[in-house]
Design brief:
alpha+beta, 5-stranded antiparallel sheet, Alpha-Beta Plaits, 23 helices, 4-stranded antiparallel sheet, 13 strands
Length: 550
């Protein structure tokens, strides 16, 4: 019996490999839940669990581990790209460009330090690559570098990079958090003040959509139809209903405005002056319920046949006495216009006749089951195209061999494109938030587990024979760019909340973002993180390969 279990755990069969992966992943999940001073390892616990079981000889089959590692990485970066794709283009507008310049500076300062360590620190190329990726907690960069090392046929190159990554990773998480704390102490930052400055700079209050009622005082629109008024207010206000004496009417296009009417709807505060000029006096709606024959209800949009069509094409307002007044997408409220495209998973706020509620819901879907049904076809198409894109050689002057986006960068680029478009001809690329979160978590657990197992056999020896020195190099790669660019950004007048998000995004470090969000309840940190993350991720994937040849 002992020999039987020993053979299962210590063998190199498919069964032994599956046992090793499942055991390390389960242990890693438990390890990742341990919280110290508000910081958790999260999915990274799988890396250290893999190292632990490999140290005791539970390693499985190396070829199978390599495949599972690469496939896990593909799943992770594809889900990541789908998630950040919708905001990728908008990140380069307004201050987004400046924040990306800061992030680029952090990336290249860290790369320069790694380059110096490679040539003057007495480390191998593969160790330098692993240190750079681990010090900035960049898993896809490590994956791309390991793929390149395998293609070059460097003996033990992938495992050496993995060990160096594991040595540098812990301080990569902790060091960034310490850097943020040091910057706040150095500049004596008042987070309340920073938040007020952020809100003033970005006109947060003026962008929030308010429910309003407008008393018609402009004689020029009396006698005109609601359709005419909608044209005049397009992009400024959406109209839901009209109050007339003692009754409430749904705002159909043919309804004619009369003197003394009150128009109800929603609009951002920034448009209030124009609305008052065109229609009349504005006041905020009270929160009382609508009259008995009218209702405001939310509908989950899950009709795949209508997904990707505009509000004008769907035409709810033409066929029913009802109007779509807001669209809530990924937690963001959108003021709808006739040209606004409605996508799977959107939450629609509708004001209309109460007895039409069921009919409208049936037409628009409102099926959680439909939304959660896996949309797997575009995932495999995306992975197929991503692997092709990742295999295209990129010739960089001065390098002896072409770099590639690899199995990390290729799927990431395709997924960002799919996420940004949402729909390509008849292909709906939507992945439900739950399915996306599962793909990301499952993929990163597979990858980090296999990296840990692949690096664990010689980890203790590496730590005892120069490991502390390697960890020290990792500390330099983590702290110098964070403190240098953080101080520069603050001296240049950047908001500290945005600096924290930019630092976390440029180091691709979710635990640091969670810490920054915990310091102050503002969306500034997450917005900055999302702004710099896509470009930073692509740069780190490419530079990890460039460091091999530099």
């Amino acid at each position: 019996m002992v020999e039987f279990f020993s053979g299962l755990l210590l063998g190199n069969s498919v069964i032994s490999t599956l046992i090793a992966i499942a055991l390390a992943a389960a242990m890693g999940i438990l390890l990742g839940k341990i919280e110290v001073k508000g910081v958790k390892l999260g999915s990274s616990g799988a890396l250290f669990a893999g190292i632990l079981i490999a140290h005791f000889g539970i390693v499985g089959n190396h070829e199978m581990l390599h495949f599972v590692k690469e496939f896990g990485l593909i799943l992770f970066v594809y889900a990541l790209g789908i998630d950040i794709g919708p905001r990728f283009i908008t990140t380069f507008r307004s201050s987004g460009l400046k924040l990306n310049f800061l992030a680029i500076a952090i990336v290249f300062v860290g790369f320069a330090i790694a380059l110096v360590i490679k040539y003057f620190g007495g480390v191998s190329t593969q160790q330098a690559v692993g240190l750079m990726s681990g010090a900035v907690t960049n898993t896809p960069g490590l994956g791309a570098a390991q793929q390149m090392l395998n293609e070059l046929g460097i003996p033990n190159g992938s495992s050496e990079a993995g060990m160096a990554y594991a040595l540098a990773y812990p301080f990569g998480v902790i060091g960034l958090i310490l850097g943020i704390v040091m910057l706040r102490f150095l500049f004596r930052v008042n987070l309340n003040t920073e938040n007020e400055l952020y809100k003033a700079k970005h006109n947060i209050s003026t962008k929030r959509i308010e429910s309003i009622m407008v008393e018609v005082t402009n004689e020029n629109i009396v006698g005109k139809s609601i359709g005419f008024v909608k044209q005049k207010l397009q992009g400024e206000m959406v109209i839901s209903r009209v109050g007339r004496k003692t009754e409430m009417l749904i705002a159909t296009d043919s309804l004619v405005i009369e003197k003394g009417d009150t128009i109800y709807g929603a609009a951002p505060e920034v448009h209030f002056p124009d609305i008052e000029l065109k229609v009349g006096r504005i006041s905020l709606q009270d929160k009382r319920s609508l009259p008995g024959n009218l209702a405001m209800f939310h509908v989950l949009f899950t009709n795949r046949k209508l997904a990707g069509k505009t509000i004008e094409q769907i035409g709810i307002y033409r066929r029913y006495e009802a109007n779509i007044t807001r669209i809530i997408r990924a937690g963001i409220e959108i003021l709808p216009t006739p040209d606004t495209v409605v996508e799977m998973g959107d939450m629609l706020r509708i004001v209309g006749k109460r007895d039409l509620l069921d009919e409208i819901r049936n037409e628009l879907g409102n099926s959680v089951r439909e939304l959660t049904t896996p949309n797997t076809f575009p995932i495999f198409i995306g992975i197929f195209l991503g692997v092709l894109v990742g295999s295209i050689p990129i010739f960089i002057p001065g390098l002896p061999a072409p770099a590639k986006f690899g199995l990390a960068g290729g799927p990431l680029l395709v997924a960002i494109f799919f996420g940004h478009k949402g729909r390509i001809w008849r292909l709906n690329t939507y992945i439900s938030p739950g399915a996306n979160a599962f793909l990301r978590e499952f993929g990163i657990l597979l990858f980090l587990t296999c990296v840990g197992i692949g690096s664990g056999e010689g980890f203790v020896d590496a730590f005892l024979n120069g490991g502390i020195r390697l960890m020290g190099y990792g500390v330099l790669i983590t702290t110098i760019p964070v403190l240098l660019i953080g101080i520069l950004a603050k001296l240049l007048g950047f908001n500290f909340l945005e600096i924290m998000g930019t630092l976390a995004g440029s180091m691709t470090d979710p635990p640091a973002l969670e810490f920054a969000n915990g310091m102050y309840p503002s969306n500034a940190q997450s917005a900055a993180y999302a702004t710099v993350y896509p470009l930073t991720m692509i740069l780190r994937i490419v530079l990890a390969q460039v460091l091999i040849f530099a």
